[in-house]
């Protein structure tokens, strides 16, 4: 049973590692373009993120609720950002549309210039771009940290397994074993050591990614 459980754990780790090896694009830049959301049209921003719609939608709510009022307008969202200072006497309204694209999600954002004069509109034009960028930082950091925790936990299991195999190999050698049993243990230990090395390398990759997403 222990061997079966261990093999199942390795299968999960190999699958996870293979998934993470095909690294998602974590770019923070957005595309400036003409965006139309319902009756509102103008210069806005668009981004495609390599994550499923449900995950993006759930975390978009979490992100916005930390600093703004989020109104669900059914086909789009209105993010109402309160004044950042006493000098700024009006909230900023940004319309955001999330759209599923198979395993990816399209994010489009557009500043609502209602009640804004020309100077104020120009000053806040980049707010939609900043909103998408800050959301992607929030989302990507959470994703990286979550995968870091998963791999770190699996690496700990592999490390313990590696130590046990080393002990079994040492005991077998002390008894003068040179047959198939010793070879099997050594093969198993090599496989575990290789996967542990891969896991440690992946942690370093994720640390580097975390440093880029800011």
What's the SSE blueprint?
Layout: H1 2-21, E1 31-37, E2 40-49, H2 53-64, E3 69-72, E4 77-81, E5 92-101, E6 104-112, H3 118-124, H4 127-174, H5 180-212
Antiparallel strand pairs: 1-2, 2-6, 3-4, 4-5, 5-6
Walkthrough of the structure:
The chain has 214 residues and is α+β, with helices and mostly antiparallel strands. 56% of the residues lie in helices and 21% in strands. The protein has five helices and six strands; from the N terminus they run αββαββββααα. It has a six-stranded antiparallel beta sheet, covered by helices on one side. A hairpin with a 2-residue loop joins strand 5 (92-101) and strand 6 (104-112). Helix 4 packs antiparallel against helix 5. The longest helix has 48 residues, at 127-174. It is rod-shaped and about 90 Å long. The model is unreliable at 1-19 (pLDDT under 50).
């Amino acid at each position: 049973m222990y061997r079966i459980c261990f093999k199942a754990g390795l299968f999960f780790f190999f699958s996870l590692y293979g998934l993470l090896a095909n690294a998602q694009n974590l770019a923070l830049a957005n595309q400036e373009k003409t965006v139309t959301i319902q009756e509102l049209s103008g210069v806005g921003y668009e981004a495609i993120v390599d994550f499923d719609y449900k995950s993006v939608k759930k975390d978009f709510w979490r992100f916005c609720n930390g600093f703004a009022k989020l109104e669900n307008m059914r086909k789009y969202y209105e993010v109402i950002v309160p004044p950042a200072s006493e000098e700024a006497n009006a909230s900023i309204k940004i319309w955001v549309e999330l759209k599923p694209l198979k395993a990816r999600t399209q994010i489009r954002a557009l500043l609502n210039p209602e009640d804004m004069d020309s100077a104020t509109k120009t000053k806040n034009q980049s707010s939609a771009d900043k909103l998408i960028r800050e959301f992607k930082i929030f989302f990507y950091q959470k994703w990286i940290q979550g995968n870091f925790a998963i791999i770190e936990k699996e690496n700990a299991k592999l490390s313990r397994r590696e130590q046990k195999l080393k002990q079994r190999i040492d005991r077998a050698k002390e008894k003068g074993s040179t047959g198939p049993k010793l070879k099997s243990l050594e093969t198993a230990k090599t496989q575990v050591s290789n996967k542990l090395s891969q896991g440690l390398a992946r942690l370093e990759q994720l640390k580097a990614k975390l440093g880029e997403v800011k």
